[in-house]
């Protein structure tokens, strides 16, 4: 066990792992058929060149690097300072996504300032409102605060697949298989004004992402894992 942990911590082993992950994501994307639903909601933003915040659940992180492409614009993702976060950072780097290192528990303030700076200079971000530790599919307020400070709209996105499995992790991470059929769902962009209530905007984002995930899962014959909204409704 100790030997295997040492091997996994070795720099060359990690480099091989992240390369393999990146190649696997490419294989899944290019061998599968993808249906895009409600893309007209975001088409004006796709055609534009202003900064955006693309939001998706942590459990649907795997394919997101392939879902949103804007030629000529840099895309950044917030990655945890933990060693596992570094591995993900390197993997998405192979797919053209740059990173901001930090988390809500450590390095959060520094990361927030850096992300606001990126938005103001015209770059876009990908974020997970329920990351890095959850609760799963329950949005925290940091994303809408970032949108207000950076003056950028939030674009909710989710996806599902007919062939794949949910990991046993806290976020029920979805691992798609190659040669699957996938459904990508796009939500109505959320723009925050200076007087908008952050708590209401957070609930709106959460509700939209849950609905998008449920729609994609239903189209693929997959059961959606319990969300923050599900837990709240049970307590009513």
What are the main properties of this structure?
7-stranded mixed sheet; disordered N terminus; 236 residues
Overview of the structural elements:
With 236 residues, the protein is α/β, with parallel strands linked by helices. It contains nine helices and nine strands. The chain has helices spanning 2-9, 11-31, 43-47, 64-67, 83-94, 108-120, 142-150, 198-219, 228-234; strands at residues 33-37, 53-55, 75-79, 98-101, 124-127, 154-161, 164-166, 174-176, 181-186. The strands form two sheets. It has a seven-stranded mixed beta sheet, with helices on both faces. A two-stranded antiparallel ribbon has the order 7-8. A hairpin with a 7-residue loop joins strand 7 and strand 8. The chain is globular. The relative contact order is 0.17. Mean pLDDT is 84; it is low at 1-5.
